[in-house]
Structure formats: structure tokens, C-alpha cells
Design a protein that fits this description.
single chain; alpha/beta; Rossmann fold; 2 domains; six-stranded parallel beta sheet; 27% strand
Amino acid sequence: MNSSYRAMQVVRAGVLELVQRPTPVPAPGEALIAVEACGVCGADAGDIERFDPALVPPRVPGHEIVGRIAALGAGASRWKIGQRVGIGRLGGHCGECVPCRQGCFELCEKQPIVGATCDGGYAEAMLAQQSGLVAIPDELDAVAAAPLLCAGIATFNGLRKSGATAGDVVAVHGIGGLGHLALQYARRMGFKVVAVGRGADLTDDARRLGAHVYVDASVEDPAAVLQRLGGARAIVATSTDAAAVSGLFAGLAPQGRLVLLGVAKEPLRIAAGAMIRGERSIVGSITGTPYDIERALDFSVLVDARPLVETMPLERANEAYARMKSGAARFRVVLTM
């Protein structure tokens, strides 16, 4: 690599600045990645808006990263120079904490959070822990693969944890960056897919992406529609609207499961009786381990599921972030280097 690289760093709350940085040398257990693409995710908002003036140099956000290994620190065994790799939100497990010893690597208490506690991929280069790296299939180009490292694995794992089996009614709430992937995966997993959004303008998109039924929550009660269909075995909630998500709970079938992917600011309001009488449950689902991500990537190739993306060059990261935040993107924005 060159002796320096370009990066977009947070210079004040909500504002990114293009800078030139010296190219680092990977320490033991690290890899230097020449970044090719980085998705712009809703979770980036917290990293970009929470500017820390004490942090020197300022943080580089971004956690849907695809590139090639340019250099390796000591201790590499699985990875090779030039190999195509990615890294998502979880930056690599420690292997020593209690969750790691239990095999729950995604819950590691010491792992870096990419773009938040360590620099991310709004840059031409970045350092990553080797334990967090993901192999990228040849069939996926960098732009298509990038959103799958967060939005893709979040929805893929959410559906796998839903308890639903082929033929069951599964609802996806929120037809955006996560939801548009959840619809594709759910259809290809053999579920009867119900998309829940707001506005008639989403009808065609929802059906094209895999929904058998589209419910416009601005004119219909989604829970009532789901009950007319026999109740949902699972509802995957990608939205951060706590009131709307709470209202969906009544649409679950007995022993149905509400899977939370979106982080709402307000608490959910769920009647305990509805949970107890129908043995219904609520579960949260984090993104996943590197192994989980590789399974999601392989499944995406197998069933031809792909994110719908808009691309912008690195130097337009402020514009890309604003477009993502406004909800105008259809459906993901990816920065290219």
C-alpha cells in the first residue's frame, strides 16, 4: 500500500472531514485491510453524532467493510495477503471472557465495536483484529457484499432464531435497509411472508422483494391482518418505533415469537397476559459471529439474494450519511474507494 491513505473522520457532531493519514503497520493479531467498499448503516448515526473531542485522532466510522488484506501482523494462520475479507460491527472476540468460553463469541465482553470503539471503514485502509475477519465469496462483489456484513447477518440470524419453519406465516416490520433483505431471506427460507410498512408506495417494492402480502400500517391494523391469516409464527421487527412494534405483538400466533432487531429509544409496552396465555415470547438478536456472517454470505449466493444499493465515492460520505438518515435511500448506500 501507499504510505498514506484517505479517511473520513468525525470532526464534530454529525460532520465528517476528508483527511490523509499515515498507513499503519498491523500489530500481532491484526490485519491491514485495503478497503474497497463500506456500507452506510443506521447504526453509524450514533458513532457520527456522538463526537468525542478528547479522541485523537478523531474516530473513523463505518462497519460494513469489504477489502483485501494488505499486511498481516504476527500470529496469522488462516489469512493470506491479498485475500478478500470483510468485517462487520463486531470486531473480533477475545476468546477469554465468560461468553467466549461458553462459545457465545458474538456476546464477547471485550471485542471492539467497529466504527465506535475502533476506527472503521469510511477510509481507504483500516486495521482489524484477525478474529473478526470474514471470507468473502468470489460470487459477491465488494458493493453487494458490504451491506450483508451487518444488515444481512442481522436479518438472516433474526429469521434463524425466530422458531419459524417452512410454510409458517412470518412478518417483517419495516421495509428499509434491513427489511428489504429480511423479505428476500424469508421468502427463500420457505415462509409465507407478510411485509408491514407505512404507505401504499411500498407495495410494489415489498412484493418484488418477496412478500406474499403487504400491509400498509397507515390504513390497516397489522396485528388484525396477521390474525386473519392465522397468526404469525414470527415477527421480525427492524423498526425503532416502539409503539408500532408493541402493537404488532397481538398479531402473533400461540407460541409465536417477536424478534427485535431495531433498537428503540422507548420501552415496549406488552401485556403480560398475552405472553402468558399464548406462551408468546420476545427475543433480541445481535448481528452474529464471523462464522455466522460467512453462512449468511453463502446463503445469499445460493439463493441469489442481494441488497439494493446506491453507491457514492468516499469523499461524499457526508451526503451518503444524510441520505441514509433521511430514509430516502433505496435501500442501502455504499461508499466506494
